[in-house]
Amino acid sequence: MISSLSASNIDDAIDAIDLATEKTWDKAAMGSKAAQIDSHPERRFKAAFEAYKERETPNVKKEHPGLRKTQVDDILYKQFQKAPENPFNQLTVAYDAGKTEKMAALQATREETAKRLGS
Description:
GO terms for molecular function: transcription coactivator activity. This protein has helices spanning 10-21, 27-34, 41-63, 69-80, 99-117. 62% of the residues lie in helices and 0% in strands. It is an all-alpha fold. It is built from 5 helices and no strands. Helix 2 (27-34) packs across helix 5 (99-117) and helix 3 crosses helix 4. It has one domain (10-117).
């Protein structure tokens, strides 16, 4: 068990709260979280990018006036590569992964977060 957690930014603080308030990692709790893991992020990439592009285009045009549409699209694509909405930036497993592999991926993610925030 972790004795204390420290966070230096808002994302780390949210992760620390999640670690501190989660229930024990029994099989039932992990089973419900394992069902939420995305097995096919490539299927959702195009739709997620289109939604991101529609939402962020006015901001990019405001920051960079006078750019052509293709230049704006290039900027948006580069930003989307780092965005949390990108399905490839979320927890994924192989399409044929079983429940045990999904649970192992969740446990590994939890341990990595605990190692990063633990002191």
